[in-house]
Amino acid sequence: MDIGMIVIQVANGTPIVVRCEAGADGTRPVPAGNAHELADQAARCLEAQGVMLDVDSFYLCCDELQSAAHFEPLPLPDDAMPYHTARSFLYPDVSPNDSWKLLHEDRKAGRLTVYRVGVGIDTRQYVSKAELVRLAEDRRL
Question: Cα–Cα distance between 5 and 17 in angstroms, integer?
Fold first, then answer.
């Protein structure tokens, strides 16, 4: 999951609205400041998805619930670059279709940290330019 992504975590049968944040050991879930107030809405959101509360995991969170959740501002890297710009930066000589595939592979493999800010169609994704430069240099070696 991306840093900043808001999801519902089910733990011991209880749904909690959390945001994924960077931690010492990778990504960690941080509960919303008003998570307890949102528990019933989170349960209804999961019910609408057909999710039973007996399996501890992470699940998609509806836009309304994401908007209602209260979090401190997400710290972005000082050199934040829009995710769509990262594609042409990292893969300048590759077709757009193939470069998107390669960028998504880097993301899934954990070679690229993506930061999500916003909710629904207003969500923006960013990456660190320094991380992109390191990744590009590693590829050249």
Answer: 11
Interior angle at CA 102, CA 84 and CA 25, nearest 5: 85
pLDDT single digits (tens) 35-57: 999 999 999 999 999 998 888 99
Rg, C-alpha atoms of the chain:
17
Beta strands in the chain (DSSP E): 6-11, 14-23, 26-31, 57-60, 80-82, 115-117, 124-128
Of residues 70, 76, 75, the one with CA closest to residue 31: 70
Phi, psi (rounded to 5 degrees) for 34 = -110, 30
Range name among 23-27, 78-82, 137-141 with the lowest pLDDT average: 137-141
Pair type for strands 80-82 and 124-128: antiparallel
Nearest by Cα to 20 from 87, 117, 123, 130:
117
Q: Which residues face 28 on adjacent strands?
A: 21
Query: How much of the chain is helix, strand and coil, in % rounded to 5?
Result: 35, 25, 35
